[in-house]
Design a protein that fits this description.
30% of the residues lie in helices and 21% in strands. The chain is of the alpha/beta class. A hairpin with a 6-residue loop joins strand 9 and strand 10. The longest helix is centred in the N-terminal third of the chain and has 16 residues. The chain is globular, with a radius of gyration of 16 Å. It starts with a strand and ends with a strand.
């Protein structure tokens, strides 16, 4: 049976995050608040946990989850060939609602799905999410919803959709924007916006002038 904890209660917050880290270590799933919407989270380095995440959402391997990181410098361990463009983007927009797709480190022992050698990374601007990521390390996190339905903006919506497929629901209150992150793809020859979001093409072009918008 799923458990639910309200992390607005400061006296239990640290204990909740410790228990969440234990759950991740055992290959089970969490629902956590982020700065955009609620996310369903799993150990990024556990193939079985990532498979369970995709199954809970009703998704296939062709839609691999992004990876949330606790600090910007974590990208050096996950991304192959971090360049000045990526560093400039993370310096300006992280923590925040920008997901960056880049070529993954080929030596990493993980299976996020059919990534074709890439990884999507983001550092969320949310105190609870960052505190948890500081304990667990990188987490595979996708929006907390059944595929085809809107992303959950609160723990109630997430629990209604995902039920007992998730071990712990971390309740951090309502996510007001309900808008998923902007996604930019740096893995190819030409940088591309794959999904519009809170960070606009105009803002991104201040750093990446050659950016094209495929979500237009």
């Amino acid at each position: 049976m799923s458990r639910r904890f309200d992390v607005s209660q400061a006296d239990i917050r640290e204990l909740v995050f410790d228990e969440c880290a234990r759950v991740v270590d055992t290959g089970n799933l969490l629902v956590i608040p982020t700065d955009t919407v609620y996310g369903i989270a799993a150990d990024a380095f556990s193939a079985s946990a990532v498979a369970a995440l995709l199954a809970a959402k009703g998704r296939g391997r062709d839609m691999p989850p992004p990876v949330l990181v606790p600090r910007a410098e974590t990208v050096f361990g996950l991304v192959d060939g971090v360049d000045e463009t990526m560093l400039a983007l993370t310096a300006k927009f992280w923590p925040g609602p920008l997901t960056i797709i880049a070529n993954a480190q080929p030596s990493l022992d993980w299976d996020l799905g059919d990534t074709h050698g890439t990884v999507a990374v983001r550092m969320p601007d949310d105190e609870s999410a960052l505190a948890l990521l500081g304990r667990t390390g990188p987490l595979a996190v996708s929006s907390a919803n059944i595929s085809g339905r809107p992303a959950a903006q609160n723990a109630d919506e997430a629990q209604e959709m995902l039920g007992d497929d998730v071990d712990i629901y971390v309740d951090g209150g309502v996510r007001e924007t309900g808008m998923s992150s902007t996604i930019i793809d740096l893995s190819g020859d030409v940088p591309r916006i794959l999904r519009r979001g809170p960070i606009t093409a105009e803002e991104l072009r201040e750093i990446v002038p050659e950016l094209i918008d495929l979500d237009g």
